[in-house]
Amino acid sequence: xxxxxxxxxxxxxxxxxxxxxxxxxxxxxxxxxxxxxxxxxxxxxxxxxxxxxxxxxxxxxxxxxxxxxxxxxxxxxxxxxxxxxxxxxxxxxxxxxxxxxxxxxxxxxxxxxxxxxxxxxxxxxxxxxxxxxxxxxxxxxxxxxxxxxxxxxxxxxxxxxxxxxxxxxxxxxxxxxxxxxxxxxxxxxxxxxxxxxxxxxxxxxxxxx
Length: 209
What we know:
Elements (H helix, E strand, L loop, with lengths): L10 H20 L4 H13 L1 H17 L8 H36 L5 H41 L4 E5 L12 E4 L18 E3 L8
Antiparallel strand pairs: 1-2, 1-3
Helix pairs in contact: 1-2, 1-5, 2-4, 3-4, 3-5, 4-5
């Protein structure tokens, strides 16, 4: 199972843990699993994490942009407005997939048997998918910060920014590359995976992010 990099303020992870506890309590109270009720609880509870995640991304974006840009400028105001739409699209996509996969896995793997068996299998499903909550928070918030930094470099007049590889295990992390800040999307900026330590640099002598 992939490692779980912990976010500083792991609200999505905490909410997922709360959902698991609610599901287990319901099973203990009823002595059985009600998949339809559980699906509704998961959808409702996890949908509430989307706005929180977007707020964290916006804060991270502001922090990144402030390194080389003026957060009082019109450029920043325009950039954060566009970025928020991207953040929402990505947050909804990731959270929706987590919700759908959790519900599908419960339906597929947990049948009404003994209460002990139902609870054990339910816990196994949540344990298998928990790493995704930390991944969503860590990677998406750090990407937002990197995006803000890259855009601040662009708005300072430099078209290309450097992505310094961390020398990690994946091919993308082993090399340095130049990013065209006029034609980039959020997927183009680090981190590229849960353990990625790649950084955006203004130039080879910059300290970066």
